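Researcher: Final request for today, and then I'll write up notes for the group meeting. The sequence and the SMILES for zinc ion follow.
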Amino acid sequence: MTSFPGQWDDGTAADGPEHQVHWYDERTAIIRQSLRTNFEGPFLYLLLGSERALLLDTGTGHTDLRTLVDELLTGRDLELVVAHTHAHGDHVGGDDQFERVVGHSAEEVAAFFGIGDWPGGIGRLDLGERVLDVIPIPGHQGADIAVYDARTRLLLTGDSLYPGRLYVPDWGSYRASVRRLAEFVAAGNPVDWVLGAHIEMPDRPGEDYPMGADVHPGEHPLQLAPQTLTELHEALTAAGPQPRRLVRDHFIVFPR
Ligand SMILES: [Zn+2]
Ligand SMILES: [Zn+2]
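Model: Predicted protein-zinc ion complex:
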């Protein structure tokens, strides 16, 4: 059984916990850092194998993430691996709460996941009875990765695809990365849902919240259908080599 919550903590309540935890299945936790602790309200992922657990991103650092993760792992006897979708401050801010963390540069990420040819190669992380594929997708920050979990058919895309403003400082790299990611999926890696690291849109096509908004009434769901990746790939292909703002129902490409 897999599920998503009917609604994430959208910041509209006056108070509440620092994190909202939702178990997508019995070995996959989706953690949302509350918008009340920081307007970024990032989503973090905790994936459990039989030997290791991967914490993907540590949030902005404004919360006690370590205590939460320790609680979630209590009694499981798993080695914790802490890595990141990319190295922006709202995804690595809690790193100092953990003893061992994968480095932030593309070189360190490539070395850890065994990616011989960045960004063309594909890396792996074996959690025990759960092998993750790691696909380099620079363009948003530079050390960006997507994580594909064949077991759940989830594709974790960080800040490179989510329902909101997709900031693109490196247009050429981003276009190439999205193309490679679409090709990876088409090459026999089926996706049930694409899960990114933020929500910045209400559930109305092509609209976004004001920048820095820390209340998100009527949020778009976190999960995106796999067709959304195809749509992004096609939109970028059609847009050509010149950076352009692209507004679609479920994302807004935002060159910087
Ligand atoms: Zn980012
Ligand atoms: Zn971010």
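Model: The longest strand covers residues 19-25. The pocket of zinc ion (ligand 1) is lined by residues 86, 88, 140-141, 159 (CB under 6 Å).
Researcher: Thanks, that's everything.
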